[in-house]
Amino acid sequence: MRAGRMGRRAFLRAGAAAVGAVGVSSLLTACGSGGADPGPAPATAPAAGGTLRAAFVGGGATETLNHLMGPTALDYVRARARHGALGAVDPSAPDGVRYDLLEGIDISDDLTEYTLRLRPGLTFSDGPAVTVRDVVYSLAAPATLGSLPFLKNAVGAFDLDAARVEGDLTAVLPARRPLVDGRLLLCQSNLVFREGTTGFTVDMPTCGPFRMTAFDPGQGSTFVRHEATPRPQARRAPSSTAWSCARSPTARPAPLR
């Protein structure tokens, strides 16, 4: 994946890579902290723990923690590891999406209202609960904070200024016009951060599977598991991850040699 500004197609590839990066249970046997030959695949699922080390083609000094404006695919992959996602597109799932922070999305009969139901018990890495106010704020952020054009699909499809928040776990989003594919728009690329966020830093509270501990643009980043993430994809997550940046698709960074 080349460095440079990222188009929609590259972004979708990045989303797939991000799901793979944070849904790491299938990689733990081969990429754990041990260096020995893992031998035959175990009969049971691998246990949680260890350190996942991975390398991605990065963007050098242009890399940023602001995934809304990040010009490279790696910026989104990194963000997907530490910011919780509403869900991901999954054609095999009943609704065509696999929910993450959300428990589900209900659609009105006339296709003009989408009701988002947040999973209970979600918290940010510093302790406070995640609420639907954080979700609505994050959905509106591409317009209020600025973003690359292809991240503004939800803002264009829903009147977020008219969203109705019902308690901490339910929000009703009015569609600007009847929508058949609103679930796909909401779950395709939207990540959640705390209401009021205006900048993205290493130590900001996050609600994804991992918490960032270090970031060096063009060099790499490290994460530790967010232990208070009670979602299915985190059950067999590693205890930590270390991502290195390669300068070309054929390069092999030192930590992986």
Give me the number of helical elements. Answer: 6
Amino- and carboxy-terminal Cα gap: 20 Å
- Name the shape in a single word: globular
Profile the largest sheet: 4 strands, mixed
Number of domains: 2
Strands in their spatial order, largest beta sheet: 1-12-11-10
Structural class determined from secondary elements: alpha+beta
* Average pLDDT level: 79
Helix share of residues?
10-25%
Rg over C-alpha atoms, rounded to the nearest angstrom: 18 Å
Give the DSSP E fraction (strand runs of 2 or more residues): 15-25%
Low-pLDDT windows of residues: 1-39
In N-to-C order, the SSE pattern is HHEHEEEEEHHEEHEEEE
Number of strands: 12
What descriptors fit this protein?
257 residues, alpha+beta, Dipeptide-binding Protein, domain 1, four-stranded antiparallel sheet, globular, disordered N terminus
Tell me what you see in this structure:
The chain has 257 residues and is an alpha+beta fold. The chain folds into two domains: 8-83 and 208-256, no CATH class; 85-192, Dipeptide-binding Protein, domain 1. The protein has six helices and twelve strands. The protein has helices at 8-22, 28-31, 73-82, 132-144, 153-157, 182-187; strands at residues 51-57, 84-85, 87-89, 97-99, 102-107, 113-118, 164-166, 170-174, 191-192, 210-216, 220-225, 240-246. The strands form four sheets. The chain has a four-stranded mixed beta sheet, with helices on one face. Strands 5-6-8-7 form a four-stranded antiparallel beta sheet, covered by helices on one side. Strand 3 and strand 4 (97-99) form a beta hairpin. It starts with 7 loop residues before the first helix and ends in an 11-residue tail after the last strand.
